[in-house]
Amino acid sequence: FESGIGLKKSLGRFEAALRLKPDSAIDIYNLGTANRKLGKPDLALTQLSRAARADASLPHPLYSMALIYRSNGQNSQAIEMLTKAKGLAPNEPSVYYQIGRMQREAGNKQDALQAYLHTLQLDPYHTGALYQLYLYYQEQGEKDLAQRTFEEFSRIKRAMSASRKEINEDESVLARPIGG
User: Fold this and answer.
1) Helical axes 93-105 vs 109-122, angle rounded to 10°
2) N or C: which end of the chain has fewer CB within 10 A?
3) What is the end-to-end Cα distance of the chain in Å, rounded?
4) Angle between helix 143-158 and helix 127-139 axes, rounded to 10 deg
5) What is the reported pLDDT for 99?
């Protein structure tokens, strides 16, 4: 599904599924996710918003909308979507991680720190949160903590094959197609 021909084939399957069940929140979400991956953020936002309205208990469209808003520099909308997603998926570490990234960008270092720590409570191997925690400790002049955190980050990262961009954005099940 991630790119190229597989992504375009998935898009066709998602469109066909939606023709069979035009009100299916999952099928609308899957189509929006494919369009987000294809670099069509406006179309994806329309579809993801429709999916969120079709099933208000589904956190996936909210999370994916937040990723689009964040990439468009619309952090207040992104935080709003993540806050809603957090209410529906309180144990999903990537929601807290993304909130932390946006809080850090907004200059809210303590809020970002709390979000990263909560991410690590839910997933001690979350390398994105570990790396951001390392940066925080560096900025605060806490060299020993920064060094230990970076060593842990490096140890875990070596064991993984994903790039940091993949880790930062799409490791969440909330950013992947459902049943796709």
Assistant:
1) 160
2) C
3) 8
4) 160
5) 95
For residue 72, pLDDT beyond 60: yes
Q: Cβ distance 34 to 10 under 8 Å? A: yes
Q: Is residue 65 very low, low, confident or very high in pLDDT (cuts 50, 70, 90)?
A: very high
Which pLDDT band, with edges at 50, 70 and 90, does 163 fall under? Answer: low
> Which stretches within the chain are classed as H helix?
4-20, 25-37, 41-54, 60-71, 75-88, 93-105, 109-122, 127-139, 143-158, 164-170
Q: Which of 14, 29, 96 is nearest to 61 (CA)?
A: 29
Q: What mean pLDDT do residues 124-133 have?
A: 94
Nearest residue to 8 via CA among 34, 40, 47, 33: 34
Name the token pair of 162. Answer: 């994903």
Structure tokens at 97: 């991680």
Q: How far apart are CA 13 and CA 7, in angstroms?
A: 10
